[in-house]
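ARCHIVE CARD
SHELF: 3
SLOT: left
DATA:
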Amino acid sequence: MQVVYEDNHIIIVSKRSGEIVQGDKTGDVPLSDTVKQYIKEKHAKPGNVFLGVAHRLDRPVWGLVVFAKTSKALGRLSTMFRDGDIRKTYWAITQNSPTKHEGTLTHWLVRNEKQNKSYAYDHEVPHSKKALLKYRILGHSERYTLLEVDLLTGRHHQIRCQLANMGCPIKGDLKYGAKRSNPDGSISLLAHKVDFIHPVSKESISVVAPVPEDNLWQDITKNL
C-alpha cells in the first residue's frame, strides 16, 4: 500500500491488487490492519488505533481506498458514499472497444451471493438494483482499450459486470468473460481518483492513485 493523503480525520491509501480491504474467511491480513499499524508507528500511538472502513474495493482491483481515522469522519463518509457525494473515477483496460467514444450505461443488477457475481439486465427484474455509469475512451494499445469510468451508483461488481455486458470485459477478469487471466492475478481496473468535500474541514479534496507499475498500464497511460 501507499499513503496518498492523510490528515487528522482521513487517510487515503492506494492498494495493490490482491490486498483485501477488510478481513474475510481467507484469514489473510487485511489492508485495514496494515493501515492501523502504519498509524500506530507513525504517530507513536499507544493502545488500539481507531480506523473506520467507509467503502470497499474488490480484491483484484488496484487503487484508492478511503479510511476514517475518527468516528465523526466515519459516519459522515459512510453517508457521503451511500448518497453519491463522493465522485469516484476509475480506469479500466478492456479487451474490446465500445462502439461509441463515450456513453452512459444503465442496467439493473442482480447479485448472486453463491457465485459472488452480478448479472445485468436492461430492465427491472425481481431483486435487482439500478446501476448507472458513464464511460469515455482515453486511449488504445495494440490489443486493448483504456476507458475512464465515472461510477454513479455503487453496486456489487458494477463496473466489471456492466462493461462485460457491453461486450468489453476488463482484461484479466475471467469471472466476467476475459479470455485469459493476468499473470499476477489482478484485473486491469484502477480506482483512479476520488473527489469530495472533506466531511469535517469542508475543504475540497481531490486525490489521484499512482498507475500500476505493470508494462501495459504504463504503456497505455503514457500519453495522458
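SLOT: right
DATA:
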Amino acid sequence: MDAVRALCPRCVVMAAGKGIADGPTAEVLADPGVIAAYLGTEDA
C-alpha cells in the first residue's frame, strides 16, 4: 500500500466485480467499506 500511496494520486477499488470506492488514494484507503472488503470486520 505504501507504493500505491506514493505513486497514485487517485485510485479505484473493486470488490466482487463492482466498484466500491473511487477518489483520492488516501481517502479511498481509509474508507470503511474498502477496509471491510479487504480486511474483514471485527464481527466476521
